[in-house]
Amino acid sequence: MIFSSGPLSSLALSTTLFAVTACGAAVETGGVVGGSGGAGGAGGAGGQGGEVPPACRIEAEGPYGSGVTFSFDNAGDTPVYLSKSCELQYEISACADGYTKPLFVHATCTQECASGSPQGCRACAPCSQSAEMIAPHKEVRVAWSGKHFTFGNDATGCSCHNTIAAPSARYRLRVPVHASAADAEANVSPRWVSVDFELRMTAAVILVPLAP
């Protein structure tokens, strides 16, 4: 989604690889969508007309989920490395979209389009590409609020975002895992790990096993 402040750190998600990325810009360079802010939308999470297809629905759930916490767990005997550029790099996609459109899940460098820009456009420092080590038999926890964003410009021409609550449904997380810090920093030779999960009204911890 690297964010790591210990096993129980709860840090926001992200999604875009790699190169030096301004925190307010989105870049797509290899399937991961990202930056802290993003520019341009990534589609909805509701399928055609905003409806969740029957195969993607969760029984006896309300319309929106309350978020999840991903536990990136290294149960192996050697370190693994994740890439970071402002935020940890990974994807979240929706069953309703056929798991084909990664969602933008960060908007820290823009403001709501409806709020306007009374004090001018936000500016963010660039984010360098780095690597986060997860030591053997350790975990890093990262929270997703269950919200994602689309982007545009407000009436003053500043970049802005619209917040969308993701419906209770089935989703997929994908994360590129690297064998060395150098590979993670350069975004080469990733081993992709994928986990399907359900976004429910009750928050849950989703285990993401990273060991080879």
Parts with pLDDT < 50 across at least 5 consecutive residues: 1-43
Number of strands: 15
Q: Give the overall form.
A: flat
Count of DSSP-assigned helices:
1
Q: What is the H/E string?
A: EEEEEEEEEEEEEHEE
Rg calc: 17 Å
Describe this structure in words.
The protein has 212 residues and is mainly β. It contains one helix and 15 strands, in the order βββββββββββββαββ. It has one helix spanning 181-186, and strands at residues 11-12, 21-22, 68-74, 80-85, 87-88, 91-94, 111-112, 126-127, 130-134, 138-144, 147-153, 159-165, 169-178, 191-199, 204-209. β11 (147-153) and β12 form a beta hairpin. The relative contact order is 0.28. Mean pLDDT is 80; it is low at 1-43.
List the main descriptive attributes of the protein structure presented here:
four-stranded mixed sheet, disordered N terminus, mainly beta, 212 residues, single chain, six-stranded antiparallel sheet, 1 helix
Which helices and strands occur, and which strands form pairs?
Blueprint (H helix, E strand, L loop, with lengths): L10 E2 L8 E2 L45 E7 L5 E6 L1 E2 L2 E4 L16 E2 L13 E2 L2 E5 L3 E7 L2 E7 L5 E7 L3 E10 L2 H6 L4 E9 L4 E6 L3
Give a brief rundown of this model:
It contains 1 helix and 15 strands; from the N terminus they run E-E-E-E-E-E-E-E-E-E-E-E-E-H-E-E. With 212 residues, it is mainly beta.
